[in-house]
UniProtKB/TrEMBL annotation:
InterPro entries attached to this UniProt entry: CENP-X (IPR018552), Histone-fold (IPR009072)
SUPFAM superfamilies: Histone-fold
Key words, A-Z: DNA damage, DNA repair, DNA-binding, Nucleus
Assembly and interaction partners: Heterodimer with CENPX, sometimes called MHF; this interaction stabilizes both partners. MHF heterodimers can assemble to form tetrameric structures. MHF also coassemble with CENPT-CENPW heterodimers at centromeres to form the tetrameric CENP-T-W-S-X complex. Forms a discrete complex with FANCM and CENPX, called FANCM-MHF; this interaction, probably mediated by direct binding between CENPS and FANCM, leads to synergistic activation of double-stranded DNA binding and strongly stimulates FANCM-mediated DNA remodeling.
Protein name: Centromere protein X
Coiled-coil segments: none
UniProt-listed GO biological process terms: DNA repair; kinetochore assembly; replication fork processing; resolution of meiotic recombination intermediates
CDD domains reported for this sequence: HFD_CENP-X
Length: 81
């Protein structure tokens, strides 16, 4: 498999809005620092998921990563984070 590193990015504003959807109190706000931190954590999470899914595909002698590979590594991600 080729080792291609692609940049993962999320808009800080989008992450902040997604976070605010889960607040119980409408007055609760996400600070800029919190949104930046959560954006970085989401980026790391997605990169790790991609790496693990690629490794799973490689283990199964597959040249492409598909949703089945991701579904197999999902329990690992939930336990690690």
């Amino acid at each position: 498999m080729e080792d291609r590193e692609q940049e993962v990015s999320f808009k800080k504003e989008t992450v902040g809005k997604l976070l605010s959807l889960f607040f119980r109190d409408e007055k609760t706000r996400v600070s800029s620092d919190a949104a930046t931190l959560m954006t970085e954590m989401l980026k790391v999470f997605v990169q790790e998921a991609a790496r693990r899914a690629a490794k799973q595909a490689e283990t199964e002698d597959s040249h492409t990563v598909d949703i089945d590979h991701f579904e197999k590594i999902l329990p690992q991600l939930l336990l690690d984070f």
